[in-house]
Design a protein that fits this description.
Shape: elongated
Low-confidence stretches: 1-47, 55-65
Mean pLDDT: 85
Strand order of the largest sheet: 1-5-6-11-10-9-7-8
Distance between the termini: 77 Å
């Protein structure tokens, strides 16, 4: 065997594992001067699947042994084991996790129903242009975007509100105002992962379109409070920070900061509590804002009561809306849940008025949910503006909070009946019995293969079945089945119509 082939045999055992005839072809090809792509592949300690495929294809195009090489690719590479973990930042939902997700979504839908909202949905894949609104916005840098086979720029949606706006523009005057819609959908963002933050998550949104009054925001916050109460969370566990983008606009004007810097200032102010204050100051000053104005602005946004804000801010218009919101909260009965915090601005560029976010009072988690008013979003997408407000509530942080508080339910599979044919010849009869029970709305597990009765009893215990229904020859000849109540251990023969 030539020296190069010996090296191949020693250093590339995967190649040498191919059938003898193919192996001989590969050894001879390996010593060819055009075999550099394959040699680099073989001598690599852990080549990727893509690098293997490139080297093999390049090698096959240079040599007369292309058929042998492509046989290697087809027989070898396609059988390589894949990584069985989901992509980083994403999740599988096996049955035990899916039960929690379904339970949470059921609570989202129940609250939405109580508030008379209708459910809508949109494609996960949208036009990239839908999410690129203003330069510098963080979300545009986190898009999963690409060019499809038709040359169109598309993206996996990072949030739901722009899709809602697109649908409203599409529907035009065919829908009457006000619109009260909710949706539960998957969103994607390529961002740094922390506790409760993933690269995909599901989000519950409720939106009100066509209402100019702050009554809409008050209603939406109460919907979230209703969900928290439904889940067993109290105002001692969670609170809401509330402010208004109009407050920041008035503060910037009072500090002689140019209005064209508003979006950049919002992004920086939104990082208060996540970055050191000296970093916040440097970030603001990097936009050409004098340090005196920076310090004055940060003083205003550090205020924690509306009374302090009234003293510090000369423009009182924004404060009037906040006063009304707190008054409505008192009438709803959730005043103890909310507090004023001028530093809350939310990171998205389209907010125009009241903004809010829910937080855990222990400070262990990121924001649970957030929202606000976005009266000018539709015009940025080519439509006619309508007053609008809404919130987004992700599934990841709330599950972490419920775990933290010991409120996550222990949900297990529960089955009404197990149907088992003792005699294999009665399998068709067992199927008929199961079908009859299902038509009555019972959840039935039909045993589909021959098993010992001992296994059936263990299986019934594992899936928390209420009854075991045995199809035996002697009972069936009398038009009856054997029913065992698995909680009381009582059993009796029962006619099919009486099951």
């Amino acid at each position: 065997m030539p020296a190069g082939s010996a090296a191949l045999a020693l250093l590339c055992p995967r190649v040498c594992a191919f059938p003898t005839s193919l192996g001989r072809n590969l050894f001879s090809l390996f010593d060819s001067p055009v075999s550099r792509p394959l040699r680099s592949l073989c001598f690599s300690s852990s080549p990727s699947v893509n690098s293997r495929q490139r080297a093999v294809r390049n090698f096959s195009s240079y040599s007369d042994g292309g058929a042998a090489v492509m046989e290697m690719e087809n027989n070898g590479l396609e059988n390589m084991a894949i990584d069985v973990n989901p992509p980083k930042g994403t999740r599988d939902f096996p049955p035990e996790e899916m039960r929690i997700r379904s339970w949470l979504f059921q609570n989202f839908r129940e609250v939405s129903r109580l508030f008379a909202f209708e459910e809508v949905d949109f494609p996960v894949l949208e036009s990239e242009a839908l999410f690129i609104r203003k330069a510098g916005e963080e979300i545009t840098e986190q898009l999963y975007s690409f060019e499809d086979k038709g040359g169109r720029r598309v993206a996996l949606r990072p949030e739901l509100t722009p899709s809602l706006a697109r649908l409203i523009i599409q529907k035009g005057k065919s829908v009457s105002l006000p619109i009260k819609w909710f949706t539960i959908g998957q969103c994607w963002r390529y961002e740094r992962m922390t506790r409760g933050r993933r690269r995909e998550h599901y989000q519950w949104n409720m939106d009100v379109i066509g209402i100019t009054e702050v009554t809409a925001e008050a209603e939406l916050i109460f919907a979230i409070v209703t969900l928290f109460k439904q889940l067993g969370i109290t105002s001692s566990d969670v609170g809401f920070k509330v402010s208004s983008r109009k407050v920041l606009q008035a503060a910037m004007q009072q500090c002689s900061i140019s209005e064209h810097l508003f979006t950049k200032v919002c992004i920086t102010i939104d990082k208060i509590g996540k970055m050191e204050m000296d970093e916040i100051e440097k970030d603001l000053a990097s936009n050409g804002i004098p340090m005196e104005s920076v310090k004055m602005l940060l003083h205003i946004v550090s205020l924690k009561t509306i009374s302090e804000l009234e003293e510090a801010l000369s423009d009182q218009n924004a404060i009037a809306e906040l006063r009304q919101l707190f008054s409505l909260a008192e009438h709803y009965g959730y005043l103890q849940w909310i507090e004023f915090d001028a530093s809350v601005v939310r990171g998205l560029a389209y907010y125009t008025g009241i903004v809010f976010e829910a937080f855990d009072r222990d400070g262990k988690l990121r924001a649970i949910c957030g929202g606000g008013r976005y009266d000018r979003l539709l015009s940025t997408l080519g439509g006619e503006d309508l007053p609008a407000c809404g919130f987004g509530f992700g599934d990841a942080v709330i599950v972490e909070l419920l775990k933290e508080k010991g409120l996550l339910p222990a949900l297990s599979l529960v089955v009404d009946d197990i149907v088992f044919a003792i005699d294999g010849a009665l399998q068709g009869t067992a199927a008929m019995v199961a079908s009859t029970l299902r038509q009555k709305g019972r959840q039935v597990d039909l045993v589909l293969e021959r098993k010992k009765l001992k296994w059936v009893f263990k299986h019934a215990e594992r899936i928390n079945a209420s009854r075991l229904i045995l199809i035996g020859e002697s009972e069936w000849q009398q038009g009856m089945v054997r029913v065992k109540n698995l909680s009381t251990r009582e059993e009796s023969n029962v006619k099919l119509d009486d099951l």
